[in-house]
């Protein structure tokens, strides 16, 4: 195949003006990666071909107008006119030709991308393969890849990128090779693959030999993302501005949007999100944003909430509930958008949105929240899941996700995200176990130290805001502490108090008395997964549910506390703090005795039997006894709980 460069060396005659214009346009696009020059030259070539009535040249020019990526024409006028020209060009050429296949691939790719679909472009890719034309196949591969940026298509995208690299050996077009390498690099970063930076280095080596403006701009944008991950936030801001200018020079319409998202990430980790209010408010209405650029609405919601404009924040979050939360609109920025949704929902105490975000994000917990083609990263999706769980009041689940977020962010080398996840973890542990809880203090202290080193300002408390005060309950050794409106009451552990702890942890949720008695509550109630109690027959041969004397919530809590006590006792002994160690040993021995009394041979839980009516009576009596003891400790808390705790076949805490 004769290359574009070699054909250009042959000076055209005046009669070859259209062909020469097409060759110059193809060189700009596929060799130099100059999107602006390519668009301008293909436009000129199209007009010249139209004047001469050259249908084949018109088709080549109309195809080239679309550029390298999908959706390069952002305004409705430009995009509609280009599509109209391409459809018209199809009518003037052989429908079975490779050029016709390429035009159909472009039209189908643009339409699928606009609709958030991919089926049509995949069928056209099969058609391109069947044609045997490597150029048609390479272009269809890249278009299909761009339409499959949703996180669930990770494996297929990887196959398409490698196939494109292979096809580049047949097309002889350098742009195909660089695009294939770029797609592979992006895929690896989106998948948190440790080989990602190695792939970026390989791409950089090819670009160093000879530049390519379009691919080089994206590669530079990824380097800005890595600088943010490294915690060099001031340097990243300088690099982001220079990168945006290179994108503008290349004619990439994504340059302003990518710069805006990078600046959002920088300001977020600097604790200066409120400063983004005005620039993001302008950016979200820019016609230069693409169909799938949903991350800016929740980003603006976060900035508005941080700036104290709750009305604007609520409006932007409500807008995000449409495109950002819809399964069909997932794109390369969907996880970043959902990260913003989770943060905004937390800042606004929007439990419904947080619950929906948690459900949608759960399958992608292992992935990083990346924006665009790897140009900005907001850390592990576990962080967003942890914030969503925290917003809905599920502290145990929040702790699990935030702990995993710390580890995942360390694995990414994303130090600012690791610090923020560690800070949120420490705050959540304090909410769950009290401010004196040693692991909470340790996480908070380490986060503060690292934040200072990175120039970060950490956010304030994480407790969800509520229009009405709610009671809280947490364990303190052998006692439980109830808090309401600044008042505190401590009572000794009992079955009824544990039932109250479950109900208070799930305000507004009805829980069956049989489930309370059995310790069979959902994850949100008990913070632990439970198995249904086994069933055996009684003396009459009728099935009777077997329930544990010590419910599973208490058993798990006791065992967790025993492990904590062992670690604390060992630490105190190493410090020769015998007085405190003796007190903790007493608590440890008491917990061990409780577990031993409630279990049989081999550590099996001792059972008792009940039915719904017996459970209703037993649970009601236990709760009323507990309320009496709380009232004795503090009249106000006890009376408030009496008024808001409902018992019966189904029990519930209804805060007023």
Keywords:
656 residues; single chain; 65% helix; mainly alpha; three-stranded antiparallel sheet; 30 helices
Q: What percent of residues are in strands?
A: 5-15%
The percent of residues in helical segments reads: 55-70%
Counting DSSP E segments of at least 2 residues, the number of strands comes to 11
CATH architectural label of one domain? Alpha Horseshoe
Largest sheet: 3 strands, antiparallel
Helices, by number, come to: 30
Structural class call reads mainly alpha
User: What is the CA–CA distance across the termini?
Assistant: 78 Å
Q: Which fold name fills CATH's third level, the topology of one domain?
A: Serine Threonine Protein Phosphatase 5, Tetratricopeptide repeat
C-alpha-based Rg, rounded: 31 Å
Your description of this structure?
With 656 residues, the chain is mostly helical. Among the domains are: 212-411, Serine Threonine Protein Phosphatase 5, Tetratricopeptide repeat (Alpha Horseshoe), CATH 1.25.40; 472-653, no CATH class. Helices cover 65% and strands 7% of the residues. The protein contains 30 helices and eleven strands. It has a three-stranded antiparallel beta sheet with strand order 3-4-5, covered by helices on one side. A hairpin with a 5-residue loop joins strand 7 and strand 8 (543-548). The longest helix is centred in the last third of the chain and has 23 residues, at 552-574. The chain is elongated.
């Amino acid at each position: 195949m004769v290359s574009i460069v070699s054909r250009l060396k042959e000076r055209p005659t005046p009669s070859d003006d259209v062909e020469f214009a097409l060759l110059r346009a193809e060189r700009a696009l596929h060799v130099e990666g100059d999107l602006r020059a390519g668009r301008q030259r293909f436009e000129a070539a199209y007009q010249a071909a139209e004047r001469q009535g050259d249908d084949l040249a018109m088709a080549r020019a109309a195809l080239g107008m679309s550029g390298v990526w999908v959706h390069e024409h952002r305004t409705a006028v430009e995009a509609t006119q280009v599509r109209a020209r391409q459809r018209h060009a199809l009518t003037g050429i052989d429908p079975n030709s490779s050029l016709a296949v390429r035009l159909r691939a472009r039209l189908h790719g643009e339409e699928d991308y606009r609709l958030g679909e991919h089926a049509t472009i995949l069928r056209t890719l099969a058609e391109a393969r069947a044609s045997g034309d490597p150029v048609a196949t390479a272009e269809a591969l890249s278009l299909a890849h761009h339409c499959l940026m949703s996180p669930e298509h990770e494996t297929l995208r990887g196959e398409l990128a490698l196939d494109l690299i292979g096809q580049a050996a047949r097309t002889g077009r350098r742009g195909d090779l660089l695009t294939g390498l770029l797609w592979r690099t992006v895929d690896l970063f989106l998948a948190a693959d440790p080989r990602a930076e190695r792939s970026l280095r390989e791409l950089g080596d090819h670009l160093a030999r000879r530049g390519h403006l379009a691919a080089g701009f994206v590669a530079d944008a990824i380097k800005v993302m890595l600088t943010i991950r490294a915690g060099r936030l001031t340097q990243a801001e300088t690099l982001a501005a220079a990168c945006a200018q290179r994108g503008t020079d290349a004619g990439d319409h994504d340059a302003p949007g990518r710069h805006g998202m990078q600046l959002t990430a920088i300001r977020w980790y600097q604790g200066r999100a409120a400063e983004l209010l005005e620039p993001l408010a302008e950016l979200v209405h820019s016609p230069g944003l693409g169909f799938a650029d949903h991350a800016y609405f929740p980003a603006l919601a976060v900035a508005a909430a941080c700036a104290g404009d709750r009305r604007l924040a609520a409006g932007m979050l409500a807008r995000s509930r449409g495109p950002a939360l819809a399964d069909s609109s997932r794109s390369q920025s969907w996880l970043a958008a959902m990260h913003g949704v989770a943060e905004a929902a937390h800042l606004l105490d929007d439990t419904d949105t947080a619950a929906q975000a948690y459900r949608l994000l759960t399958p992608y917990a292992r992935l990083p929240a990346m924006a665009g083609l790897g140009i900005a990263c907001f850390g592990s999706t576990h962080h967003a899941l942890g914030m969503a769980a925290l917003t809905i009041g599920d502290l145990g689940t929040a702790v699990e996700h935030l702990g995993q977020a710390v580890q995942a962010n360390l694995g990414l080398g994303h130090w600012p995200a690791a610090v923020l996840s560690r800070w949120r973890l420490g705050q959540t542990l304090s909410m769950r176990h009290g401010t004196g809880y040693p692991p909470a203090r340790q996480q908070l202290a380490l986060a503060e130290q690292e934040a200072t080193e990175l120039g970060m300002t950490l956010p304030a408390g994480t407790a969800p805001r509520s229009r009405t005060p709610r009671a809280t309950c947490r364990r303190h050794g052998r006692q439980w502490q109830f808090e309401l409106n600044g008042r505190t009451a401590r009572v000794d552990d009992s079955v009824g108090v544990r039932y109250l702890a479950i109900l208070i942890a799930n305000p507004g949720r009805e829980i069956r008395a049989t489930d309370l008695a059995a310790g069979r509550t959902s994850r949100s109630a008990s913070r632990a997964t439970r198995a249904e109690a086994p069933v055996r027959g009684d003396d009459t041969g009728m099935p009777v549910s077997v329930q544990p004397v010590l419910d599973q919530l208490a058993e798990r809590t006791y065992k967790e506390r025993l492990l904590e006590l062992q670690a604390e006792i060992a630490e105190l002994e190493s410090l020769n703090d015998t007085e405190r160690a003796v007190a903790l040993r007493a608590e440890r021995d008491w917990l061990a005795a409780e577990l031993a009394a409630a279990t049989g041979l081999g550590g099996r839980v001792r059972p008792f039997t009940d039915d719904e009516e017996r459970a209703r009576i037993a649970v009601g009596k236990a709760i009323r006894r507990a309320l009496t003891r709380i009232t004795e400790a503090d009249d106000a808390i006890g009376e408030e709980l009496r008024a808001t705790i409902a018992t019966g076949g189904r029990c519930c805490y209804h805060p007023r």
